[in-house]
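Quick board copy: two proteins, each given as sequence then tokens.
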Amino acid sequence: MEADKNEFALALKTWRLRSGLTQSQVAEKWGCSRFTIMRAENARTVTWEMAYRLFAKLSNELKEEQLNG
């Protein structure tokens, strides 16, 4: 479980930086707080519901990236 959190944290931060977005911009785009993005990127605890939501959002962003480029 801890490895999953770390892998997701790395994937989220990598996508965000590659996209040229700040944590605040991602939070606004995804409808959560900057602190939630910060916690997720640092593999800190977020609720199960938020973890699922962030995973779904990142999955959609990565699919979009593949389709467009």
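And the next:
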Amino acid sequence: MGRAKNIFVFTLMIIGLQSTVAAAGEVSVGLIGGFVNTDLKDLDSLIVSANGGGTGPITTKALGNGLEAALVLGYRWDGTVWAVHFQPSYYFNSTSGTDTAGDAFDYGVTAIVAMPLLRVYALENDFLSLYFQFGVGWAQVYGEANEGADQTEFSGSNLGYQGGLGLEMCYAKMHCLNLEGNLRSLDIERSIVDKTTSSGTHANGRITQSNRGSEIEVDNRDLGMDLTGFQFLAGYVFKF
């Protein structure tokens, strides 16, 4: 709750700041969303292992592309090609199923990503604009590996960066459809166990450390959550 409150307060501060400078430039507000082709190989390896052992096979599918939705808050300086965009986003990726005994085997990752972006409008006319953008930001990532009676939740954070390009198609210069593709680098190499029902290891055998407050490990090494990948987003932006 405290983390969500801080994000809400920070968002209001950004909106307030943009309101004070709107007279000197252009403010953008909107929503954008799409998918990211992340590779959560450590969690996928747990699914493969559970499928071939214990009371397997399991019906749980591998984690595919993650979904991501972002709030757009932007400001462009009047008479220039430069703009700054803050796009706090929520990432979601999960899969669930059961084994032959009916026990749940669920895996997933969620994240809050704050990635401020510097944007450059390279080509534009009254309707269409092409822009490039890049930025450095931070993510708080939460994961879960629930394997029957062994249920473990964990979390980690790290800095990352991304860059890409986009198209902006505007009607009356105010109502805009944005399409963009970005390459993001964001790896969570180490996570801490927040909650667990296991005695320190999972009966499945691959999670070898899951004590609360310790680093979660797979095969005696840190479990990684990788949000690196190509990000494809589309959405609506209002400019004033």
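Board note added afterward: The two ends are 33 Å apart (CA to CA).
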